[in-house]
């Protein structure tokens, strides 16, 4: 595939803007909503009745999750769907409900490890805080997003003089003991963090009821390499998938000749911790949204079930490129090259949901788009990760294929992918 340099540059800038504006799932959804608003989508109230506007292009938000859709040439309620799924969350550090503590003159914040983070990648980085607050106003509670302008804390690594074996026996980090960041000097008092948050958003400390506060690396995304052909950025897993899905649905809504079938994008939260939440792939919310969309079109639940039976879900999550320093950790018949195009992910134990029908459909889309495609199979003696694909497939009984763009340093605070793979992924999705 020969890529247009102008398109690649625009996509690179667009993805970097999306990632850097989205330190948390709540910010990712707000950034996504702004992109959809600009593309002419209608924001639907999750509580109010939906009228004709629900035919789309439209979207609905709940917490750190979003579902968006646009109509195709087929407008009947039972029309099959072209579905694209991704997730908004990434592994990292999240602040506890009572975080204030101090040791030996250092003020610290108690944090809890979220998901399967590479723990060492959070050491000695300048970290900001972002998330959302529940703020009480009179008898109501309002949710407010927040984000610090820069770094406010750091997880300091133990000096080598006090850990002489670290270079030979390796670094072992206890999630309870060794990942607590420092964020000031002196002695902590209970309520310090609450008061600091309150000042950040301009309310009294007593008004702050609860929070989801996430650490994020304040270093912005960067294009690196001798040929400027790599992107180093936080949260590529899976904001790159979210961006690709949003790019595809915005394209479907903008073309003069839309695809035959409606396009639906599902951005779930909580994939990294198992998806068993209200806005996770194992929750009922997505199915409820799809049923309400069908009802607004004048259809019934039977129409929804008929629609899902003929639909295809492309679950988009990042994929493992073959690591040049650890090639033995990869299945030798399925090495994945950076810049080699999207990856179809296979696992016979259903850690990925790909079956032959979905794989054939995605490969055909790549052929139509002129995009090369690769196939990943995990090494048989190592546990395999998973995605929203198997969970969504089991809940909706929809044909599913798991795909992604190749990357290194998955689940690190900072990850790496080829610039060439940025454009390939949404190009393939647009051809589904």
Record keyword descriptors for this entry.
432 residues, alpha/beta, Aminopeptidase, Aminopeptidase i, Domain 2, five-stranded mixed sheet, 27% helix, 26% strand, globular
Number of domains: 2
Span between N and C termini? 17 Å
Indicate the structural class: alpha/beta
**Low-pLDDT windows of residues:** none
CATH topology of the largest domain: Aminopeptidase
Assign the CATH class of the largest domain: Alpha Beta
What's the total helix number? 10
Give the topology string: H per helix, E per strand: HHEEEEEEEEHEHEEEHEHHEEEHEHEEEH
Query: What gyration radius follows from the Cα positions, in whole Å?
Result: 22 Å
At the fourth level of CATH, the homologous superfamily of the largest domain is Zn peptidases
Strand order of the largest sheet: 1-2-3-13-4-14-18-16-17
Query: How does the major sheet shape up?
Result: 9 strands, mixed
Overall mean pLDDT stands at 96
How many strand elements? 20
Query: What fraction, in percent, of the residue positions are helical?
Result: 25-40%
Architecture overview:
- This protein has 432 residues and is an alpha/beta fold.
- The chain has 10 helices and 20 strands.
- The protein has helices spanning 5-20, 25-38, 166-169, 192-201, 236-254, 285-296, 301-309, 356-369, 388-396, 420-430, and strands spanning 42-43, 58-62, 65-70, 82-87, 92-103, 106-114, 127-137, 140-147, 182-185, 208-217, 222-224, 230-233, 263-268, 312-316, 319-320, 343-346, 374-377, 399-404, 406-408, 415-418.
- The chain has a 9-stranded mixed sheet, sandwiched between helices. The chain has a 5-stranded mixed sheet with strand order 11-12-20-19-15. A 3-stranded antiparallel sheet has the order 5-6-9, with no helix packed on it.
- The relative contact order is 0.18.
